[in-house]
Amino acid sequence: MQKKPVETVSANERVSAAVATLLIQNNKILLGRRFSDNNIESTFEGWQCPGGYLLEGETIEQSAKRICKQKAGIIIGGLRAGPYSNNLFSESLHTVSLYVIADSYQIVDSRQFNSSLFKWSWFTISRLPAPLYLPLKNVFNGRENIYITDSDSG
Q1: What pTM did the predictor assign?
Q2: Contact at 8 Å (CB) between 48 and 23?
């Protein structure tokens, strides 16, 4: 029996995995926007959910909890699987965003929640702000958004 050759993939051919949390309460969603800074690439501009890259060895749920605490100063609970988005930012940047839906939250660090890096606000799902960060825009423009429901609404 002849072995099949192993396919190798270089680092620049890999797609990065990101995790983001959809926190929906009373038909409103928590979104943050980075303040403009010369050190932040324009790729990451727009209103977005708490999100970031999945670290090696983390589960999706662990990643969502870490990111929400680091970026927004919140602890989340009641996690369930959400939609995903395939994001082609440019020829050199391709990510997949895995969304988690959190049914509860608690602000544990108000300084982080009200930081100078992000502005966090609640928006009615039917009236989202512009511009949306590409992965979130892809979710709301795609058919996956049918699965985004507010646990308090039904």
Answers
A1: 0.81
A2: no
